Amino acid sequence: MSDRAVRVSDEGAVRRLTLCRPEAYNTITPQLRDELGQALDHAQADPGVRVILLDAEGPAFCAGYGLDWSTAAQAADDERRWDTAADLHAIGPFAKTWAKLHDSTKPTLAAVQGWCIAGGTNIVFNAHLIIAAASARFGYPPSRVWGVPEAPWTWVARMGVQNARRFLLTGDEFSAAEALRMGVVLDVVPDAELADRAMALAQRIALVPTNQLELVTLAINAVANHQYDPPASRLLGTIFDGVARHSQEGADFVARSETVGYREAVRERDRPFNDYGERRD
Description:
With 281 residues, the protein is an alpha/beta fold. It has helices at residues 30-45, 67-77, 84-103, 119-124, 152-159, 161-170, 176-182, 194-205, 210-228, 230-245, 248-260, 262-270; strands spanning 6-11, 14-19, 51-56, 60-62, 108-112, 115-117, 129-133, 137-139, 174-175, 187-189.
């Protein structure tokens, strides 16, 4: 088991950041947040880097927040009344870290395979470009109970208001092919070709001078920032995520996780929808 959550490597002018805890499905931990944030900062400051490529090892890109530590943390905190400001201090740094993928002046590209769900979408939907393997599946099951996306604007920007409502009101999963149809991802490729195809696009982009890449990226980001107001969306999403986690239903979910284990609590939540790990057909 790796003692790192993110591995950093360079291929020419492409800085590659790889989530490298495949045995844990690259679930989100404070360590992953800190290592990814530092790696993004270093890439921004390195004049030799023109493009940032985010990918992952294993059968899942990211299966969301690690419920082992996050449900236990809430169970311990629930002895006190919920404090919105304290919750923002605890969760806000995660959302701010993922936002670095959008705010980057250098193009950011994500290569996604397998499960990219819940908190995994918080990360990936901030990237400028996404290439998905055919195996990729997306969704936000915590919207059924115990969560709201930390950056709702990314859902609207990528798939439109109506599709964002459809998938967040149900928490349903959607395939790579559906993601392509809605415009969530740029392209879908065979799993065996994902790494090469993503790197090829990153290297092609890196042929352009750094100043041109940054000017174009800043110009496009300005449009997205004006149209969707990402900072306000992140703030509201993070606050509402805290509300959802501390509602009666959220507290019941945490209590159930403490009783039967978080894996069984998730199964019970998702079983009526017949999706994710509970698919029976």
